[in-house]
Write a structure and sequence with these properties.
The chain is mostly helical. It has 17 helices and no strands.
């Protein structure tokens, strides 16, 4: 029976995800690294048990949206505004230095400018899900370095818009004026909402009190609130995760909506796990075996260069030395939206198929090895100095 096949399918997937997640926790690695391994094992390049990677990617995107929503609930809009200098200058300089670093490598291999810019953009983005998972696991979300990194990650989402425009121009596709206006309107809307929320100590929507005795309706209203904001920013050609983040900030400031994050917690866990599994499914083991020297070189180079760039910029912007290096290591991996940038580069022929596969493998492995890298850096740094990274 079809129903029996579906049940077996879910049992096997859940068992492998649970087993690998538990194994990673035993060796003191974040559980999500087990989900990445599960995706690699079950995906089309592993056993092939899960072949519909497009569906997995879409479900994983839902997980990112929910994760950013929960982060928004915990974050004060006033803190984001106060961190604007580190967020804006840090992200801008990070992108410029990343492009410059790739440019040095490009000189050796005679790369065109378009490829240098694309790969610079790719390595400049980090994954919010990975950073937040690590910070939460160590109870550092509320620390000064945690707040600084979160502000940078939010700004990175906004920087994706000019990145897409730049790649379109470099690829000879041009830019649609209507799309550009929509993106500009979206940025103005987000900033306006943020300023409006900051001016109020607490928001109030008395009509939502009517749902307090309806648990079922609370779940659906919570999902509607989260995904409606994500849909709006998506329609404005911005990141859907960015919309859900601001929805979370609104919820965190609204006294009648204190129950929303509790209602969505279990759903978030499932979809975030699917996101990490979708990353693992992109790892082509056969390609890794054929190009393992190049992949290892690129992974180590990216982690090292990104750590140095981000640590230097954080120190330049006033963060103490210990937290600067630690923060640089946390931002060293490459984020999930870089998969999209790499795919665009392939479509407009900025990179070749082999270069694209090398880029995908590097992104996926930096996501997987990111926690290991942070652990090594922390061990090299030793104990945090007294007074460093105090609560923000």
């Amino acid at each position: 029976m079809l129903t029996d096949q579906i049940i077996i399918y879910f049992v096997i997937c859940a068992l492998i995800a649970l087993s690998l997640g538990f194994l990673m926790s035993l060796i003191r690695l974040p559980v999500f690294t087990g989900y990445i391994l599960a995706g690699a094992l079950l995906g089309p390049h592993g056993t092939g048990f899960v072949s519909d990677t497009d569906l997995m990617n879409q479900l994983g995107s839902v997980g990112v949206v929910l994760l950013l929503f929960f982060i928004g609930v915990e974050i004060s809009p006033r803190q984001i505004i106060e961190k604007w200098r580190i967020a804006v200058l840090g992200t801008l300089l990070q992108v410029l230095f990343s492009v410059a670093a790739v440019g040095l490598l490009g000189l050796l291999f005679d790369w065109p400018v378009a490829r240098i810019v694309l790969l610079g953009f790719v390595i400049s983005l980090s994954c919010t899900a990975v950073v937040v998972d690590f910070l939460k696991g160590r109870g550092e979300m509320g620390t000064a370095i945690g707040q600084n990194l979160l502000a940078i990650l939010v700004m990175q989402d906004l920087f994706v818009v000019p990145m897409l425009i730049t790649l379109g121009l470099l690829g000879g596709e041009g830019v649609e004026v209507f799309t550009l206006w929509r993106q500009l309107a979206g940025c103005v809307l987000i900033v306006s909402v943020l300023l409006w929320v900051v001016r109020r100590d607490q928001l109030s929507f008395p009509v939502m009190d009517r749902l307090s005795a309806q648990p079922d309706l609370q779940v659906f209203s919570a999902l509607l609130f989260c995904f409606a904001m994500a849909f709006i920013t998506g329609m404005l050609q911005l990141s859907t995760a960015l919309g859900s983040f601001f929805a979370g900030m609104l919820v965190g400031r609204t006294k009648e909506l204190h129950w929303i994050d509790n209602k969505l917690e279990a759903i978030k866990i499932i979809f975030v796990a699917l996101f990490f599994a979708s990353v693992g499914a992109l790892i082509d083991t056969r390609f890794l075996l054929d190009y393992w020297v190049e992949v290892v070189f690129l992974v180590v180079l990216v982690l090292l260069v990104n750590t140095l760039i981000n640590a230097g910029l954080l120190k330049l912007l006033g963060v103490d030395a210990w937290d600067s290096v630690y923060g640089g290591a946390l931002l060293a991996h490459v984020g999930e939206f870089s998969f999209v940038l790499a795919a665009i580069g392939l479509n407009v022929m900025i990179v070749t198929e082999v270069s694209y596969q090398l880029t995908v493998a590097t992104i996926a492995l930096t996501l997987f090895l990111g926690p290991v890298w942070v652990g090594l850096v922390r061990r090299m740094l030793g104990r945090r100095p007294a007074g460093s990274s105090v609560m923000s």
